[in-house]
Amino acid sequence: MSLVLEPPPPPLSKSKTGAPLKRCFTSIRTALSPPNHRFRASRFPLHPTSSSRPTVTVVLKTEKEKNAVTEQKDPPVRIVAVVGQGSVSPLKCTPWEEVMMHTAKRLKWVDEGYEMVVFPDNFHQSNDQTAMDLQKELACADILLVVAVTNQDSVKWIGTNSGNIPNVICFESDPGLVNKLGGSYVHSEMKGSIFDKLVGISQLKKTDETKEVVQTVSEAWDRCNSDDIRFCLLVIINAYIQPVPVLKNLRSKGFSTLNCMVKNCGPQILDCLMDPNCRKALQCLNKCSPVDQVCNYRCIASFESPKLEAFSLCVLQKNNCLDLDAKIPEKPYVQPMLKFRGKDLCHETAKDLFVGWLGSLDWSWRVVAGQNPAYDQFPCQYQLFYRGKAKGSFWYEPVFQVKTLEGELVWRRRKYRVKRANVPGTFYFSVLDNGVVSNEYWTIVDVSENFSWGLFHYHGAARVAGQSYTGAVLVSPDGTYPKQTQNNRLSSALEKCGIKEWELYTVDNCACQDPPLGIPEGSSLHSMVDAKDQSWSSV
Length: 539
Hints:
Elements: E1 2-5, H1 63-71, E2 77-83, H2 96-110, E3 114-120, H3 129-138, E4 143-147, H4 152-161, E5 167-171, E6 179-181, E7 184-189, H5 204-222, H6 226-240, H7 255-274, H8 276-285, H9 293-303, H10 306-318, E8 339-340, E9 343-344, H11 347-355, E10 365-370, E11 382-387, E12 394-403, E13 409-413, E14 416-420, E15 426-433, E16 436-447, E17 454-462, E18 467-476, H12 487-496, E19 505-506
Parallel strand pairs: 2-3, 2-4, 4-5
Antiparallel strand pairs: 1-7, 6-7, 8-9, 10-11, 10-18, 10-19, 11-12, 12-13, 12-14, 14-15, 15-16, 16-17, 17-18
Helix pairs in contact: 2-6, 5-6, 7-10, 8-9
């Protein structure tokens, strides 16, 4: 199979960077740089990869001019989504229209300037008001996203009315629909193995540049979750329209990165390359897009080792050789629960809610389901919350299974320091995870009076890895879903987080033999309330 790049249509008023895209986003294994990046932005790059983009002349500006440029606001990004009428997504059979409407809301959490409208494909008649409204939106669209459209009238209508849109991406739709990025059309031709031969030699470098974007979007879409659907759009915006705030820092600084690594971390680099697990981790990471947290963390969890921790501690945490930065997201704002068992929630009671069942059981909580595809979906997740020996200290230790990329099932464990925030029910968490510090802001959204379930939400960032994230976990004492009588209350709690029930991934709690649990000797548990107190009626 090969990519065929065709000449772009006449230039539009807003210039875009062009690159091709496969219609179905077939996965392509590559480690090439994305279009807008001068050097590949792998989390642990051992060598820079120069791109084929034209040299840009640097012009010195006065301080006043620099400030003026800095203050300029990016224009809105306009996205139009067209979904098949009545089509159903793989997200617990939720209608695609509902999934896309929710995606539009979640895009606003990243940037208020991302405007997405959603239409079902019931616009076959030209005099229909829906068709007129859609035509109006398409006239100023930056991206057209087509999902599950197979009706031939719709296919023809879209083909006729999307010619001036610079970015058109189609998923699970009729093969007659074409994709376009930055004004360049792309289609495939069978030539043997995938990318066995590229047609259009003059576009070869351009094709090479886009492979990583195609791979990233392909793999993200195939994971079938709400975070990755939004991520697909963010990757395309970042590559072809304008920098995305949460993605734009993920780029290597080229030789300055190499110089920093060699100057400060020579022994750690050598030790890592000599260690099989650490070397596999670097090779795995270099196959991931730097913006793909799911891919990156699977590599880290699969091949973690003391050598990898020492490597990343030196390269990233101590010296920040990639010169990255990330902040904890501010959105969505999630309000903590205000009362528990009829009383105003206080800081000590909030800690007791985290401690949960520990003491009666060997763990505080087990995770039933999670929302974040990178961090909440591992099998057999146990939570251990406890008060430490030092006055006021509080700790969280998650224990979870990882099915490594080599097929081995292993246990992993982390240790977070926890400090209470200003508002009861909110906390600051920090952890050193394989040499990189992550800081998180957790909220107790709700816990049932008899401790039969709870919902915890978090915002987080690994600053020197340039990654920010959000997530939520539904917990219970045995890892099973709450009773149906709690459905309304659970839905209300999820709504406070901006999460739909169909976004949650059910954790596999079937084969959880011999988890490495236990807490340090001398630790204490509850202070105000205890899960063992079952004077509250079962719900």
